[in-house]
Protein: DNA polymerase III subunit gamma/tau
Organism: Candidatus Nealsonbacteria bacterium RIFOXYB1_FULL_40_15
Amino acid sequence: MDNLALYRKYRPQSFSEIIGQEHIIQTLKNALSSNNASHAYIFSGPRGSGKTTTARLLAKALNCRNRKEGESEPCNKCSSCLEVKDGRSLDLIEIDAASHRGIDEVRELKEGIRFSPNKEKYKVFVIDECHMLTKEAVNALLKTLEEPPSHAVFILATTEIHKMAPTIISRCQRFDFRRLEFQEILKRLEHISKKEGAKIEKPALELIALHSEGAVRDAESLLDQVLTFSGKADITKDSIKEMLGLADTAWASEFSWFLSKRDIKGAFEFLEQSLEKGYDPMELSKTLVSYLRHVLILSINPEVVSGFSKEEKETMKNQAEILGYGGLQKALGLFMDAENRMKYSSIPQLPLELAIVDFLKENQ
Ligand SMILES: Nc1ncnc2c1ncn2[C@@H]1O[C@H](COP(=O)(O)OP(=O)(O)O)[C@@H](O)[C@H]1O
Ligand SMILES: [Mg+2]
Ligand SMILES: [Zn+2]
């Protein structure tokens, strides 16, 4: 295996490879094939859902030299496509607003907009995390969006659309990317591990898919770590748990029983044992929060929960009944806080321990 990160190696190179986001892809393809692309787009949605990938695809398709009328996919062979693919196109300008917030970048953006494309038809500006743009940059952008030069296409991407100025949003065509579903991510992981020739059992992939919480990139990065660690060895669910210090549904379920039974001593002992076994406290709280969230969702609408066996769902239902909406809400709040506080705690498990006490103190 070469050392290019999996998520880059398998970044979709045509629209047909994008999973989920069907309506977005269809709309973009229609716009391309009818030569009707907009001058400004805004892509919102969680990280790892395909915003940057789609932005680059759109840029590639717009400037593809072989794409004929009525077609939407880039050819991936012409010089323009290859330059985009290799990240050396002069007519695709990517600006990360999170790390470039200075005056110089704003000026660069302003001047860049005025100049025509270097070689191709369009100059495409992708502005990532655009909610972080400075006021000055937003104003410059706004002016441009009011009267965009015919050669310019803006694609703004953000994980936090609520922080965007409404004046900007209203001038863009907006697409909301969704979190991917468990089955969609699982399928993608199966596809990649097959291509990589990896020997990895399905429960192992399921654990990774569940852990990624709907972000394809996270799933691919986890798979990457696992493949790098294990080399050619057979990969099982257990070996992954050990390798990454990941807890699984069984762990979270067992822990949740202590919460359900209001057994503070048991909860502490169980936590202690888990840490001794090498589980990472951060991973533990993440797994617990994710599990409790699924318990809550399951108690509201069982149809929408996937990634759990029938027996697991049965247990989750029981726990939901014992804990109740109020209990689940409280536990989720407390353990989510614990996860955040852990970043600043000199004793990593302390926030977890405090959350346990907070949750159970009243009935002791
Ligand atoms: N919808 C998707 N379909 C296929 N792969 C995806 C999708 N979303 C993300 N990926 C994978 O995750 C990687 C990162 O995605 P990216 O487009 O950079 O996410 P975002 O910009 O939304 O954070 C891509 O290279 C690709 O491998
Ligand atoms: Mg991105
Ligand atoms: Zn091309």
